[in-house]
Amino acid sequence: MRYFIVNRVSGNGRGLARWSRIEPVLRDKGIPYRVAFTERPGHATELAREAVKMGVRAVVAVGGDGTVNEVGNGLLGTNVPFGYIPAGSGNDFAAAQGIPKDPVKALERVLKHSPRSVDTADFGGRVMVSSVGVGFDGQVAKTVNESKWKQRWGKGSYAIGVLKELRRFQPTGVTLEVDGQVIREEGVWLIAIANISCYGGGMKICPEAKNDDGILDICLVRGISRWKLLRLFPLVFSGRHVNYPYVVMLRGKEIRVSADRPLVVHADGEIVGETPVSVSVRPQSLTIL
């Protein structure tokens, strides 16, 4: 039996719409399944853990990147495979894994049942599946998540958030520790710690990041004016920002970020706290379809 966890409100109701598309297919094919709908933050993690105890063949999330994070946290360290039907506003995890946008085609991929192991990363007692963002990045995520226009604008909502926060955010000094090496940078705007190449709805913040290589990619932006940052921003969608002197690219397994003032931190698009934050890779810790 496959266990589906559906976030009905994800993507301005796309979660429920996607489920309405795939449930008839399951019935027509005579595939045993069970479905549960999330009711609150963290509920998907609870449901995934319950599904593991039931001995299901796979757990399939229908929602956005936040739902991916919650279900991933529930399945971490188990042998139960994780399938995904994208229904969010960004769907970066789906893009990184080559999961089709069309729900029926995504379901076909799940039903082929070809499991493989990927990395995740620990931070503060939780796990991130795709990325952690600190500073300007986290503040934009916070603004977008609290906005009324996230559902309306979908992937474009992050760009709107950037424009809103660009005037208010104050860069600060940051101490970054990567595998024991201490790096001090002033005037830091953001630090992205990535397990996949994209975040924020298609931005290739760490173009070389892969979630099966046992290492995390880091992008640090510092020493840049607001105007230049605005000009640099569109290049992130192609990954060409990495060629500019304001951008530092690093890689590591154990990462700690502390700052001269508290900076907002997000994991997989959801706000999880403030600096300091420590992130460590967990190789081959999640099985996906």
Automatic annotation (TrEMBL):
GO terms, biological process: phospholipid biosynthetic process
PROSITE patterns according to UniProt: DAGK (PS50146)
Co-factor requirement: Mg(2+)
One Gene Ontology cellular component annotation held by this UniProt entry: plasma membrane
InterPro entries recorded: ATP-NAD_kinase_N, Diacylglycerol/lipid_kinase, Diacylglycerol_kinase_cat_dom, Lipid_Phosphate_FormReg, NAD/diacylglycerol_kinase_sf, YegS/DAGK_C
Sorted UniProt keywords: ATP-binding, Kinase, Lipid biosynthesis, Lipid metabolism, Magnesium, Metal-binding, Nucleotide-binding, Phospholipid biosynthesis, Phospholipid metabolism, Transferase
GO-annotated molecular function: ATP binding; kinase activity; metal ion binding
Classification via SUPFAM superfamilies: NAD kinase/diacylglycerol kinase-like (SSF111331)
A Pfam entry, by short name: YegS_C
Record domain DAGKc: where: 1-127
Record carries keyword Transferase: yes
Similarity field: Belongs to the diacylglycerol/lipid kinase family.
Protein name: YegS/Rv2252/BmrU family lipid kinase
